[in-house]
Specification:
The protein is 41% helix and 21% strand. It has 155 residues and is α/β, with parallel strands linked by helices. The termini are close together.
Length: 155
């Protein structure tokens, strides 16, 4: 695969985090999409609609567990709603990408492992001799998670 695109489907205020690894050019790019439809438009209109592209989506449906540390009902409800939204986005995105004939796979958060830090991610990028597109100066945890998904599926 030349392109590996990791998608962290968390619906948050700062948007859905996407990371593109171009394994041939050794380039890492980050994208943010405020709306789900913007992500679909990116996939549909991009050059990454080839048999050389693998889409990797984090899918918390595969865990079938909600980790809630609070006992306050309003907090538990809010977290459950957020998890439900993210699970729905994962399923819909996976089905949509497959319906277009693109290669896609889902990974459980368990397969992704523990959270990576920005420093850890940057060390991997450096050790692999990847160049990072710095047009997006602020790297969020969603970006790091999307990078993790793409990187662990790299051939």
């Amino acid at each position: 695969m030349r392109y590996i695109i990791g998608v962290d489907p968390a619906i948050r205020e700062n948007g859905i985090g996407v990371c593109l690894l171009d394994c041939e050019l050794k380039l890492v790019q980050f994208f943010k999409f405020k709306k789900f439809v913007e992500l679909l438009e990116f996939i549909q209109s991009s050059i990454y609609k080839t048999n050389e592209t693998l889409y990797v989506i984090e899918d918390s449906n595969m865990l079938n567990v909600t980790f809630v540390r609070s006992t306050q009902p309003n907090v538990v409800s809010k977290i459950s709603r957020s998890v439900g939204k993210n699970q729905a986005v994962s399923m819909i995105l996976y089905d949509w990408i497959n319906s277009k004939g693109y290669t896609c796979r889902c990974l459980s958060p368990k397969n992704k492992g523990s959270k990576w830090t920005k420093e850890y991610m940057m060390a991997i990028i450096k050790s692999e001799n990847f160049n990072i597109d710095k047009s997006n100066k602020k790297i969020s945890q969603d970006d790091i998670d999307a990078f993790t998904l793409a990187y662990i599926c790299k051939p």
